[in-house]
Amino acid sequence: MAKEPRATPYRRSRQRDRILELLRSTETHPTANWLYSKLRKEFPDLSMGTVYRNLGILAEQGLIKRIGFGSTFDRFDANTKHHYHFICESCGAIIDLELAIDNSLNDRVNRTSKHKAHTHDIQFQGICESCATRKKT
Amino acid sequence: MAKEPRATPYRRSRQRDRILELLRSTETHPTANWLYSKLRKEFPDLSMGTVYRNLGILAEQGLIKRIGFGSTFDRFDANTKHHYHFICESCGAIIDLELAIDNSLNDRVNRTSKHKAHTHDIQFQGICESCATRKKT
DNA sequence: GTTCATGCAAATCGTTTGCACAATG
DNA sequence: CATTGTGCAAACGATTTGCATGAAC
Questions:
Q1: 0.85 exceeded by the pTM?
Q2: Minimum CA–C1' distance nucleotide for A54
Q3: Which residues does chain A have within 8 Å of residue B124's beta carbon, measured at their own beta carbons?
């Protein structure tokens, strides 16, 4: 669950430079495929493998973030009332929180932007109770 | 992006009933595969197809929720400073919000539970500015 | 009896990986 | 020149789907 920096140094590559530039130039949150098709014009035989490898490296370097829920596969929840989640960085568990829903958050969005927020989800990240108890690894 | 209820009525099935029961009986947020292996004992020739189909139906009925970021594929963000996201229910756009980070949220988790939260993410859902402007579809 | 749900297997889709060659430092 | 990054294609893992049969209404 933790991330090791890496032993050997990274070499530069035109492809990686451009992926980062392109990602910085947009407000959207592109998918690998979007980047691929944009860059295809400059690098006619760019491959998806290269895009993914570089995205991984950039993320490892902290230059970009991969957004998602942390998990590769779908998870399902029968608790349909609105609640927040805690995701343990150590064991990966997803835990329901008792925390009261803060409806003022939607209001803040609606006051400070032109978007109309109906609801929201929060995921907290950290160390869950049982991992904290059995100390650091 | 919207979800149509469905024309024809659903029929009951023992498999679907048990999937829902099982999901309700646990605090964890199971994956399809976890449900599959549990139910395999009762339905020796259960198939993954059935599990997925039923999870889809239950979610459509609002009896369960699929947790994730709304998107099937990874998205990448070059904006590495902490910020919240707005996801448009109409067009699917993911938009960065200017909203100030509320660090008291972590404190609330740390006070009300035994988990140690370092950080959190929020995704608001609703209708984005440009979809709101060009009215309902 | 008609239609929907199932089980099976093949298909699909996003992502990862092994390999031979090209580019980097 | 030692090693990393690339392109290609095959591999992978999660999820979806087409089809013939069985269950629900």
A1: yes
A2: D5
A3: 105-106, 109, 115, 117, 119-120
The beta-carbon neighbor of B113 closest among A24, A97, A122 is A97
- CA-derived radius of gyration, chain B: 19
Question: Which residue from A86, A95, A71 is spatially nearest to A123, judged by alpha carbons?
Answer: A86
Q: Which residue of B has its CA nearest to A71?
A: B68
CB contact under 8 A, A113 and B129: yes
Phi, psi (5° rounding) for residue A11? -100, 155
pLDDT in tens, chain B (137 residues): 544 566 678 999 999 999 999 999 998 999 999 999 999 999 999 999 999 999 999 999 999 999 876 667 889 999 999 999 999 988 888 999 999 999 999 999 999 999 999 999 999 999 999 999 876 54
Query: Is A97 close to B77, i.e. CB distance below 8 A?
Result: no
The residues, ordered by sequence, that sit 6+ positions from A114 with a Cβ below 8 Å of its Cβ are B129, B132
CA pair distance A122, A95, nearest whole angstrom = 12
Tokens coding B63: 């009896």
